[in-house]
Amino acid sequence: MLIPRNTDTRRTWGGQERRRGQGSRRREQGETRLFFEDALIGVAQSPSTKPPAALNQESLDQPEIQHLDRERQRIATLYKALSHANKAIVHATDEAGLYQQVCRVCTEYLPIDLAFVGRAEATGERLEFVTASGRLAGYLDGIHISLDPESPAGLDPSGRCLAGLGEQIHEDWSLEPGLDPWRERALAFGIHSSATFALSCEDRVVSALNLYSAEPGFFTADILDLLREISGDASFALDRFARQAHRQGAEEDFRATFEQAAVGITHISLEGQLLKLNRRFSEMLGYPEEELLGLREQDLTEPEDQAEDARELQALVAGTRPSSCWEKRYLRKEGGPIWVRVTLALLHDLVGAPTYFVNVIEDLTSQRAAEAQHEELLESLHQAQKMESLGTLSAGIAHDMNNVLAGIMGTAEVMKVT
């Protein structure tokens, strides 16, 4: 059911009816006097004159004083709204909370009757209302806004913003074209002017901030400038959320890779202490993780390999190479060394200062065992080849001896017969 607006109710600045008019300047007797609708609101001294006496409010009539007070209150209200908007944006931690706080500030600290944020639904066919605030929020109940530009109910001010057509300012809903599908409902609720601003994230429009007022022509230049600044700050916050999400995703990917890697990974301080390590490294050395943290790399290294470790670390710190790879022995908790291949790199911060080492450790136990087995097989083969050679030599010698013996035996037989 449409709820007509009470035409006697009006939001005002400083408790007075808000008037709109043109400002002007007048030069009189070396002074520049600033007027707003014929009311003096300030005096600027020209360079060639002496400083004027302070403005005496007694020289102004009562209507001028009241108007000057209203202007002061209006400007103070704008600054207060901007201040609260910036605080809300800075403290917002997610997109939904940001939208809610921006709408709240606009209706609480500005005489705006409805503030809401709209964005495209997952299908991209209709507008979804994310949050709303203000005394005319009932306008949104049951309303359906299509984002299809070919639809008669498509592309309201929010849809135009989401379509990349820029901000939408409507000073009088009763007169302006292009608002026919929503005009009757809006006027029934007392909506007469609106301003809609695109909110972007990573250079892409993702939502629209809508501000509606019951006063025609409410959105003057200074109010629009304020709302543009609030919209820009909100878009900056959306960029911040996106960067945080990307960083969190990268951290989660790194954490999964770090913990589930088939090789050992450690972070080592510039002083040589273990800062972080994964499960595989703990398994290699047979230590619980908490026992390894804080130990020095040197404490876990075979004494004969420590000198080479020191040379490689110094080369990385000196910048003579980006990374280094060599084989060494760690000492297991249960005793005895374990052969590993380490690949070490030195990380730097944004200004190029070294921060810590990243060490990737490959267990060479299986490889060393395979190499030892290979050496044994080679040795066995070598021995077999030697025995085969000896056998061949022995056979040759025996054959030759047999030939000699056969000759001797034949001669002996002849001599015996003779």
Over the alpha carbons, how many angstroms does the gyration radius reach? Answer: 44 Å
Number of H/I helices: 9
- Helix fraction by DSSP (H/I, runs of at least 4): 40-55%
Distance between the termini: 151 Å
User: Which outline best applies?
Assistant: elongated
> Biggest sheet: strands, sense, closure?
5 strands, antiparallel
Q: What is the number of E strands?
A: 13
Order of helices and strands: EEEHHEEHEHEEHEEHHHEEEH
Low-confidence stretches: 1-25, 40-55
Derived structural class: alpha+beta
Strand fraction equals: 15-25%
Overall pLDDT = 81
Plain-language structure description:
The chain has nine helices and 13 strands. It is α+β, with helices and mostly antiparallel strands and 418 residues long. The strands form three sheets. Strands 5-4-8-7-6 form a five-stranded antiparallel beta sheet. A five-stranded antiparallel beta sheet has the order 10-9-13-12-11. Strands 1-2-3 form a three-stranded antiparallel beta sheet. The longest helix has 53 residues, at 365-417. Residues 1-25 and 40-55 have low confidence and may be disordered.
Keywords:
418 residues; 5-stranded antiparallel beta sheet; 42% helix; elongated; disordered N terminus
Task: Furnish the topology, listing elements before pairings.
Layout: E1 23-28, E2 31-36, E3 39-45, H1 62-91, H2 95-109, E4 114-120, E5 127-133, H3 157-162, E6 168-170, H4 180-188, E7 193-201, E8 204-213, H5 221-260, E9 264-269, E10 274-277, H6 279-285, H7 289-292, H8 306-318, E11 323-331, E12 337-348, E13 354-363, H9 365-417
Helix pairs in contact: 1-2, 1-5, 2-5
